[in-house]
Amino acid sequence: MSTRTTEHKEGKATVKVVYYTSKTLADGAHPFVVRITKNRKQVYRYTGLSLLPKYWNADKKEIRRSYPEPKREELLKELEKWRKKYEAAADILAENDEEHDAKAVFKKAVEGRKAQRRVKLLAFIEELATSMITTGQVGNAGVYRDLGNQLAKFIGAESNAPEPPIGKGLIAAKAAWIKQYDVPLDHITVAFCNEWEATLRATGITEITLSLRFRTLRTVFNKAIAAGLVKASNYPFTANAAERHKFQVGKFDVTTAKRAISREELRKLEALEPVNDRQKLAKDVFLFSFYCGGINFVDLAQLRWRNLEGVNEQGYPVRLNYKRQKTGGKFSLPLLNPAALMLTSYKRFTFSSPDSYIFPILDLQKHQNPDQVKNRLHKVLGQVNKDLKELGKQAGIAAPLTTYVARHSFATTLKMRGENTAVISQAMGHKSESVTAVYLDSFASDVVDAAFKGLL
């Protein structure tokens, strides 16, 4: 006698985010719900997101283009997060071949959320910093780690914990401290921000540093929301004018003294003869930054000969192509004669292969890992800025010169010559200027190239 068995294969639940017109909210909007269908049975869960009917295209079942940006894009992203979250739960149950109904999908998704909530504030900040280091964003990682260190001090004082171990060689001790005294991400409330601000102010901290700390904390919170680690409803920062009861990151006074010099003052620096190689490097760094879109020191120091493209009739390189360390943005700039001539003068000293650094700041043999590069850049930048201040005095320039002044001078010179702010922003890579960015894509590269001629 033979027996025959039939293998059971559990089907997968279908997940869809639906504009639920059967329910009308107080403001006339309809909510979006997640609909799970399994074995012809459906269950619904509210997402907390809604939309007025005038912005919904019932025929195409999509949000109309008339819904203002960036709200439309943000809403679409949030809806997609909800769908993916429950889609992942449905996938897991189907792959495990577990017999289940639609409600089980929601239960599985809730289990995932509970697991995610175990990630805490300081641990999440350290995770972000570590991720940045692996992608070469050492400077940004330092900003995040500094935030974590300052928060650890405050959190420790709040709970009468011992001073957090901070510094090189204390990685294990710091990790152990965080594990014991860390707080949930939703510990960041309006009250927490107000108390931390008062504590920081008592130390005599500057407004600019306060702004940096809280802007970074706000970014951390936004990343945590995007990762599903904390609810958007717990957001403690002001998102619009109506939320004055929340913490306002924009309240800090970040105005500074004049940082740009005039084109006439820059010509004085160009005409100045440095007394030694160190001053020559400082002068060249400043002028190259000015002529190349305000390129910052970190990017300039890491330029290699392979970043140059083309050669003109005089044998000078034609373009500079590089990737900005801070944002990852890609730049292609025309090399004006003063900058091209400067590069040519360095070639016989620093060129050994296309991978060689252009400027004599980093050494391929000595500076191989991110920490070595970071430490070297920090040391040289301090010396360059010191030398620039001395050069400025010699040239009769009143404003103290720094590499940052070169960046400001580039923008100011073009603005004084009537260039469009959006073109200047594109040349400088101001990705954070979202309003300007809407228009930037429409500018052809030759428009930006033409703007550079105003520097001469």
From TrEMBL:
<feature type="domain" description="Tyr recombinase">
    <location>
        <begin position="256"/>
        <end position="452"/>
    </location>
</feature>
<dbReference type="InterPro" id="IPR010998">
    <property type="entry name" value="Integrase_recombinase_N"/>
</dbReference>
<dbReference type="GO" id="GO:0003677">
    <property type="term" value="F:DNA binding"/>
</dbReference>
<keyword id="KW-0238">DNA-binding</keyword>
<dbReference type="InterPro" id="IPR025269">
    <property type="entry name" value="SAM-like_dom"/>
</dbReference>
<feature type="coiled-coil region">
    <location>
        <begin position="72"/>
        <end position="99"/>
    </location>
</feature>
<dbReference type="Pfam" id="PF13102">
    <property type="entry name" value="Phage_int_SAM_5"/>
</dbReference>
<dbReference type="InterPro" id="IPR013762">
    <property type="entry name" value="Integrase-like_cat_sf"/>
</dbReference>
<dbReference type="GO" id="GO:0006310">
    <property type="term" value="P:DNA recombination"/>
</dbReference>
<keyword id="KW-0175">Coiled coil</keyword>
<dbReference type="InterPro" id="IPR002104">
    <property type="entry name" value="Integrase_catalytic"/>
</dbReference>
<dbReference type="Pfam" id="PF17293">
    <property type="entry name" value="Arm-DNA-bind_5"/>
</dbReference>
<protein>
    <submittedName>
        <fullName>Site-specific integrase</fullName>
    </submittedName>
</protein>
<dbReference type="InterPro" id="IPR035386">
    <property type="entry name" value="Arm-DNA-bind_5"/>
</dbReference>
<dbReference type="GO" id="GO:0015074">
    <property type="term" value="P:DNA integration"/>
</dbReference>
<comment type="similarity">
    <text>Belongs to the 'phage' integrase family.</text>
</comment>
<dbReference type="InterPro" id="IPR011010">
    <property type="entry name" value="DNA_brk_join_enz"/>
</dbReference>
<keyword id="KW-0233">DNA recombination</keyword>
<dbReference type="InterPro" id="IPR050090">
    <property type="entry name" value="Tyrosine_recombinase_XerCD"/>
</dbReference>
<dbReference type="Pfam" id="PF00589">
    <property type="entry name" value="Phage_integrase"/>
</dbReference>
